[in-house]
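Tokens for chain A. Residues wanted.
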């Protein structure tokens, strides 16, 4: 069987929603079907103001077997737009067949065609299959640390009452 990698379209919403649900379950963070469908609608539609993702799908016999969601970034080092792979996922039934590589290759084409300066991504340091793929295609490991503050914890950063005390101190310290 062969598959194609192409841009996601509005008609792909249900298939992408199923793939997103599988991805979330795979990573131990299942979501309600409605959340997956809403995310798929965003990713398969024309972007609203300020939200401009690129979404690639690997499709086999009309079924989505892999996805690559990219966001436009403006890295300070280059001050030129780059594409950032936010999520790359391949369905269990389509792994070890070149699907992930094909999706990253599709992303590379978007970089070239769109005049972007680079393709960036992160992966969990313990995700050895993904790291082997990325090392094998010439990805370079950067010496950066990835940070995140969940929306529920932002109150501490902003010095709000009732927030975690150590975060309130940190907010005032910097």
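Reply:
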């Amino acid at each position: 069987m062969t598959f194609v990698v192409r841009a996601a379209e509005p008609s792909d919403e249900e298939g992408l929603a199923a793939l997103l649900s599988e991805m979330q379950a795979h990573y131990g963070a299942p979501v309600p079907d409605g959340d997956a469908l809403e995310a798929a609608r965003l990713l398969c539609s024309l972007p609203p103001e300020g939200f401009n993702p690129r979404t690639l799908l690997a499709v086999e016999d009309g079924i989505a077997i892999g996805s690559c969601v990219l966001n436009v970034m403006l890295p300070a080092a280059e001050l030129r737009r780059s594409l950032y792979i936010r999520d790359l996922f391949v369905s269990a039934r389509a792994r070890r067949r070149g699907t992930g590589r094909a999706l990253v290759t599709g992303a590379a084409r978007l970089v070239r065609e769109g005049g972007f300066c680079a393709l960036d991504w992160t992966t969990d340091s313990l995700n050895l299959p993904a790291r082997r793929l990325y090392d094998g295609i010439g990805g370079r490991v950067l010496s950066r640390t990835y940070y995140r503050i969940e929306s529920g914890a932002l109150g501490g950063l902003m010095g709000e009452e009732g927030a975690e005390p150590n975060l309130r101190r940190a907010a005032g310290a910097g």
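The chain has two domains: 4-143, 146-174. The chain has six helices and five strands.
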